[in-house]
Amino acid sequence: MRISENVRELQGSATLAITTLCKAMRAKGQHVIDLSAGEPDFRTPDFAAQAGIAAINQGFTHYTPVAGIQELRDVIAANLAEYAGKPIDAAGIVATTGAKQALFNAMFTLFGPGDRVLLPAPYWTSYPELIRLARAEAVVVMSDIESGFKLTPADLDRHHDDRVRGLILNSPSNPTGAIYTLEELDSLARWASERDVWIVADEIYGRICYTEPRAPSILQLDDALLERAVLVDGASKAFAMTGWRFGFSYSEPALAARFAALQSHITSNTSTPAQYAALAAFKSEPRVEHAVKAMVAVFNHRRERVLSLVRKYLPDASVVPPEGAFYLFFRVDGYYGGDITDSVAFCKRLLEQTGVALVPGAAFGDDRYVRLSFAAAEDELVEGIRRIGEALAVTAANG
Fold first, then answer.
1. Residue 4 has what pLDDT?
2. 3 state SS of 11
3. CATH superfamily assigned to domain 14-43+288-393
4. pLDDT more than 70, % of the chain
5. 3-state secondary structure of 163
6. Whole-angstrom Cα distance, residue 254 to residue 346?
7. Phi and psi, residue 187, nearest 5°
8. Phi, psi values for residue 149, rounded to 5°
9. Average of per-residue pLDDT across 65-83
10. Phi-psi region for residue 351, left (φ > 0), alpha (ψ -120 to 50) or beta?
11. pTM for the full predicted model
12. pLDDT tier for residue 292 given thresholds of 50, 70 and 90
């Protein structure tokens, strides 16, 4: 079959592929412990869900402006201004069908053939494919466990040339949970500003932070450093609203208008009821803060438990305790051998032998690692890590 060059090399989402395989195994009656999921295992808070239901009941089910209803954009701007400590122009907000569409809008608008985009690795699995869709080239810049999976301007300098037009930043990171400090963000932003490089900052996990109330944001930097920056965020993670498909971008209003123009030919506005649900989620109200803090507290408890279990059952695993998000990224290439030559084969064998699903590190640009999600019930985490530890102990014993 002859297909367009636009998608000929495009790869499907590895995380969704694992989820699909888990569902197929469960449909056959097999007991699967799925530690691959990239979504909170909580219900959407009632205040957001009821707002969406009320919108449907009130007939708010028609088109809205492409960039979103004005009240929602105003509320998001006020929310951003509160933690940025500066005014935020609602004209720079574009509501999107999930944060993934906001990323697509940014990359498709800012980059094109001949452009190069610096991509810190490990990276979220969709970044290289989104860059590819823009006909640009992803330039992978590796980080390592010794640096806490974070890059410096010196690291970026080694990969910079006059074709580099973009830098992707994801903090807190999926898959590592690493968080850049405000000082580190400032140094990276100054590096980009001096070279006319756009920053696309994905802060979707910003409120799932274990070291402070909220992860540092590029919005807290000097305005002069934000002239060539796009912030991407949404409701999926902090408000357990993955299925509602609500995200947004914030940028200079003139660029936001470009994003809206592009989106008008792809999806038009995001779901109208989802916009009203998000309106309730992004209001600065005590019930909202309580819901977020309660969920993060549970994640933090699981994080401590998972780290303890890994030390017990996987004493040789190399891991940096995640500062944010809800993943543990740990190294397993010491267990490769025979027909297990990479992380994909490793995860497939583990799933077949133990019924535990992880995501191979190859999906994130580092084939030595795997990702474990602790967005799962605690008893499943305990049993899953125990099974992994026992299986790997047998593998090690057999040489």
1. 83
2. coil
3. Aspartate Aminotransferase, domain 1 (3.90.1150.10)
4. 97
5. coil
6. 47
7. -65, -40
8. 60, 40
9. 98
10. alpha
11. 0.95
12. very high
- Tokens representing 295? 């969920």
Length of the chain: 399
Query: What's the pLDDT band for 374 if we cut at 50, 70, 90?
Result: very high
Q: How confident is the model at residue 27 (pLDDT cuts 50, 70, 90)?
A: confident
At 339, the pLDDT band (50, 70, 90 cuts) reads: confident
168 vs 119: CA distance, rounded Å: 6
Answer yes or no: are the C-beta atoms of 209 and 177 closer than 8 Å: no
| Res 316: pLDDT | 85
Q: Which residue has the tokens 């309730």?
A: 280
Task: Tell me the HSE value of 274 on the side-chain side, using a 13 A CA sphere.
Answer: 22
What is the rounded distance in angstroms from the CA atom of residue 16 to the CA atom of residue 12?
8
Q: What is the domain partition of the chain in residue ranges?
A: 14-43+288-393, 63-283
Q: Are 351 and 280 in contact (CB under 8 A)?
A: no
| Residue 198 pLDDT exceeds 90 | yes
DSSP for 221-277, please give it.
Answer: S-GGGGTTEEEEEESTTTTT-GGG--EEEE--HHHHHHHHHHHTTTT-SPPHHHHHH
Q: What is the pLDDT of residue 1?
A: 79
Alpha carbon distances (Å) from 204 to 107, 140, 231, 237, 388:
16, 21, 9, 7, 29
For residue 139, the cross-strand partners are 118
How far apart CA 217 and CA 172 sit, in angstroms, is: 10
> Which residue is listed with tokens 């940028």?
251
Q: Of 319, 320, 369, whose CA–CA distance to 344 is shortest?
A: 369
Element (H, E) at 14: helix 14-27
Of 191, 96, 180, whose CA–CA distance to 143 is shortest? 180
Write down the number of H helices and E strands in the chain: 12, 12
Which three-class secondary structure string do you get for 280-329? HHCCCCHHHHHHHHHHHHHHHHHHHHHHHHHHHHCCCCCECCCCECCEEE
The answer to whether the beta carbons of residues 329 and 140 sit under 8 Å apart is no
CATH number belonging to domain 63-283? 3.40.640.10
